[in-house]
Amino acid sequence: MKTIFKSLLAITVVSLVLSSCGNGGSKKGSQGALSSSAAEKVYVAPGEHDEFYAFVSGGFSGQLAVYGLPSGRLFKVIPVFSVDAEKAYGFNEETKPMLNTSHGFIPWDDSHHPDISQTNGEIDGRWVFINGNNTPRIAKIDLTTFETTEIIEIPNSAGNHSSSYVTENSEYVVAGTRFSVPFPQQDMPIDEYKGNFKGALSFISIDPEHGHMDIKFQIRMPGFDYDLSHPGRGDSHGWFFFTTYNTEEANSLLEVNASQNDKDFIAAINWKKIEEYVNNGGGKKMPANYAHNVYDEDTHTATSTMKKEVLVVDPSDVPGAIYFMPTPKSPHGCDVDPSGEYIVGSGKLAAELTIHSFSKMLKAIENKDFDGDAYGIPILSYEATLAGAVKQPGLGPLHTEFDGKGNAYTTFFISSEVVKWKLGTWEVIDRKPTYYSVGHLMIPGGNSRKPFGKYVLAMNKITKDRYLPTGPEVTQSAQLYDITGEKMELLLDFPTIGEPHYAAGCPADLLKPKSKKFFKLEDNKHEYAITSEADAKVVRDGNEVHIYMTMIRSHFAPDNIEGVQVGDKVYFHVTNLEQDYDVPHGVSMIGANTSELLIMPGQTETFVWEPKQVGVWPFYCTDFCSALHQEMQGYVRVSAKGSNVPITFTLDGDAVDAE
Amino acid sequence: MKLKVLTLIIAVAFLSSCEGESKKAKEVSETQVIAKKVVEVDPMKDKGIGPITSIALSEVDEVMAAEGKEVFKTKCSACHKMSKRFVGPGLAGVTERRTPEWIMNMILNPEEMVAKNPLAKKLLAEYLSPMANQNLTENEARLILEYFRTVPSK
Question: Which residues of A498-531 are buried (b: 16+ CB within 10 A; e: fewer)?
Answer without folding.
Answer: bbbbbbbbbbbebbeeeebebbebeebebebbbb
